[in-house]
Design goal:
Number of strands: 9
Helix content: 25-40%
Strand order of the largest sheet: 3-2-1-7-8-9
Shape: globular
CATH architecture of the largest domain: 3-Layer(aba) Sandwich
Bound molecules: adenosine-5-diphosphoribose
Distance between the termini: 13 Å
């Protein structure tokens, strides 16, 4: 009997209990930094050093960050289900917790790549370099001689993995959404690609901006919500 497929879409909330600030909660990152200055393509071309510092700072935080029980519970789903994690997060906590199929929609903090000319944003995947929790500064060049930039999808850039994410959600038997305000597209629209009969579970302590008869909102933090989600799964067996 093939295992049921679970697609898990995560956002900053799944890493909140690992000590990472989310973006839009009170005290979130976008309260401290101007997102247009540090996380948009225009901000990059306006002030590369500021953007490099912002991501160097977030990479430093990653050095001793640990997955929390929610990351581990998501990884453990793989024992009984065929699991794909689609994350908006750029941290590597799903990897550290042992999830084996992870699709990063907004890039990865530990990776950098050559900056392309203003009108040529393409890059080859073999040009992506993993620097772990290291730093990148102005003048640090890629082998092709171009300035290295964060391997992050800046606001204003395309989301190359969105088609793959749509394919994963459209074939899922269960969709689980953990810790995202569902305000940033195209990620926020992914749930609409789940089949009409597919149950959708959303784990979030706050109200969520989507209303759909397939949705069960587990109003809790990720670590507690995952315990409740596992009860739903046991009842579905
Ligand atoms: N457990 C679960 N959810 C939580 C927790 C927690 N402990 N704490 C906060 N949350 C929820 C908040 O209620 C909110 O719905 O996590 C969500 C965080 O929302 P955002 O801060 O908007 O983060 P996210 O949805 O991941 O942002 C999407 O925006 O800035 C861009 O690229 C960035 O990937 C990010 C994207």
């Amino acid at each position: 009997m093939p295992k049921k497929r679970i697609a898990v879409l995560t956002g900053a909330g799944v890493s909140a209990e690992s000590g990472f600030a989310t973006f839009r909660d009170s005290g979130g990152l976008w309260e401290k930094y101007d997102v247009q200055e540090v996380a948009s393509i225009e901000g990059w071309y306006r002030n590369r050093a500021l953007v490099l510092d912002f991501y160097n700072d977030r990479r430093r935080q990653l050095a001793d960050a640990k997955p929390n029980a929610a990351h581990y519970a998501i990884a453990e789903l793989e024992k009984d289900f065929d699991v794909d994690v689609i994350t908006q997060n750029v941290d590597n906590l799903h990897e550290k917790a042992g999830s084996t199929r992870i699709l990063h929609l907004h890039g990865e903090l530990t990776k950098v790549r050559p900056e392309q000319g203003l009108y040529d944003r393409t890059y080859r995947t073999d040009e992506v370099i993993d620097i772990g929790c290291g730093e990148v500064h102005l003048g640090d060049l890629a082998p092709n001689g171009q300035q290295l930039r964060p391997h992050i999808v800046f606001f204003g850039e395309a989301v190359p993995n969105i088609e793959k994410a749509i394919e994963i959600v459209s074939r899922a038997d269960i969709l689980l959404i953990v810790g995202t305000s569902l305000q940033v597209y195209p990620a926020a629209g992914l749930y609409r690609y789940a089949g009409n009969q597919v149950p959708i579970y959303i784990i979030d302590p706050a109200e969520v901006p989507v209303h759909d008869p397939r949705i069960t909102h587990i109003r809790a933090v990720a670590t507690k919500g995952m315990e409740e989600f596992k009860k739903y799964l046991r009842n579905q067996k």
